């Protein structure tokens, strides 16, 4: 029996396929579903065979163990001692199986020795090697000169020796691992010890080298990394880049803390050239009611800011907090709070905090209730203005509080609708005069009685509304601060449906024709004595054709005696149900001059509006063409226009956007963006925004991307306008090692600039091969 098993120096592993090669399939041999989701730059993927049902003879394992099934072409058995199998040896115990050429089973000790080439399968993994030891009692497997494959993580490697101490763990000595395809070691991790824990989704390694094309480029004494989608504590990949906005080059090394299943945190220390050490912290908490997020940023001594702002100590900070809570039975609680130490913080420092670059930061919290017939909401709302050039009179009011209530009930043929709003408006008015100085309370109620009627061929809805508002103001300079305003309103909205079926390019479709008439009358008088708490003149568009009030907010109710005539036609694909085209056009005819105004805007004597139209074309599932605009028939000129074309291939490899925005006498901008693959692996990325009014570039982005399904890299140069209308530049770089994450920060700016890029990223990283 001494010569039964091969010596340790045998070379079967070199002559036999590795674990990855056994389950690797070229693209053309993959199952249809897997092949359809495979990026074009990937050559193939792994396929795990279904569990086999071989007819194996049964030998009972030790007491308490699962039965051991064993078979071979030849067998010799010593009763209660040793079983020797030779030729096509197959073993199975539970979900574990192994094959080899020879095996010796010591029944008294429950130990199995196998000669290779060894092939062992378990749930989600495949192991191969020269020779192996297997303990049938504990399930521990040891393989010498081994290779391995984890199907879920698509991770493969080799090892001087490999053991399987538990069904869900693999321990590797002197090993390498990578997520690249077989025989493609573009990158690999080489370590003295590697432990892969499938139950926790974590891999750990000691004395780790990152090798690129077998050349060492980085060393860690210890590293941990995910082997599936679950979260784990540890360092994330560093980010780095450069900008000429004063922050210069930066590098950051985030550290993720998986503190508990319901909460976690990310610490991001980063060094910014010219500014110093800057820290950001993000914490997330998921309760049974909902999720809360807290984000903080802090720098103790911003050197550039100290030189720019004399007298500053260089200490700067920011905070952003959001929370949502589903309270049950239709109730929802929410809160949003943002604050920064100074007005330049977001443009100078913010990199990861989820605070938009706006003129005002909002602080809002409240509760909301909704059911089929009614809604209620109460909240407190405030702002921090972060743009220096905004005048005190133009800063928004706080709502302390605002309460909304409404209901919609049907009483036989009649519908009753009610909307009510109570608000207490407040702001610092020490530097203000006149109406701008006023603060106080506003109560607005709008009861409505309607007679809706609907049929397959059309609908009609006449209604009457009483729009009543009561004010009680402080610091009101035009008299008693308590007064009211009542405006009666009549509306009649009617429409018809016509349709016909036909064919276009052998595709059956249904075309509709939908004429619509909308009449509105509102008896409103001059309201210039009322302060402007939250009101603005609405932009005119096709949707505004069917609104009786030309003002938003509650401090102006527009006078109206007008009729809107509009028509819409749709083309619906009867095969897929998709709306392939929609064209709409309408105009308002005014029977009286509009006299109510806001800051001199909104009053006009013209008897008709501009023609408002919009069109949406979807000739393909991957192509959208949208255009909308205003055209004045009196002067035969376009007043406003917005057009956009969005295209993406089915796999999102090709992306293209074309856009044009125009407002007569104000601005005109054109933009073009694209992701265009020039080879299977290389794609060009770009976007350009041109401002015709100023004859200058308003923003641009240009980059190159390389993918080979093992790793990817993006290099992007971005120009953008700052608050002071200067065109600044930054260079961003991102490298992604498939399965281990990446460094840099190029993807987010591209996703913001080019429609569909975020979906493209999801598809790329969702399927590695």
Q: Would you give an account of this structure?
A:
Among the domains are: 12-49 and 56-180, lipopolysaccharide transport protein A fold; 394-625, no CATH class. With 769 residues, it is mostly beta strands. Mean pLDDT is 86; it is low at 1-14, 52-64 and 352-356. The protein is 5% helix and 58% strand. The relative contact order is 0.06.
Summarize the entry for a quick read.
The protein is mainly β and 769 residues long. It has 7 helices and 48 strands.
Radius of gyration: 35 Å
Low-confidence stretches: 1-14, 52-64, 352-356
**Relative helix content:** under 10%
Largest sheet: 26 strands, antiparallel, barrel
The overall strand count is 48
DSSP summary: helix tally: 7
- In percent terms, what proportion of residues is strand? over 45%
* C-alpha geometry: elongated
Mean pLDDT: 86
State the separation between the terminal residues, measured CA to CA.
Answer: 45 Å
Topology:
Blueprint: H1 12-15, H2 19-23, E1 24-26, H3 32-36, E2 44-46, E3 58-59, E4 68-71, E5 74-78, E6 82-93, E7 96-106, E8 111-122, E9 125-135, E10 141-150, E11 155-166, E12 169-178, E13 187-197, E14 202-212, E15 215-226, E16 234-235, E17 239-243, E18 250-252, E19 255-260, E20 263-272, E21 276-286, E22 291-299, H4 303-308, E23 316-328, E24 331-340, H5 345-348, E25 360-370, E26 374-385, E27 398-411, E28 414-426, E29 439-450, E30 453-455, E31 458-474, E32 482-496, E33 498-504, E34 507-522, E35 536-537, E36 551-552, E37 560-573, E38 579-590, E39 611-620, E40 623-632, E41 637-648, E42 655-663, E43 667-677, E44 682-691, E45 696-707, E46 711-721, E47 727-737, E48 741-744, H6 747-753, H7 757-766
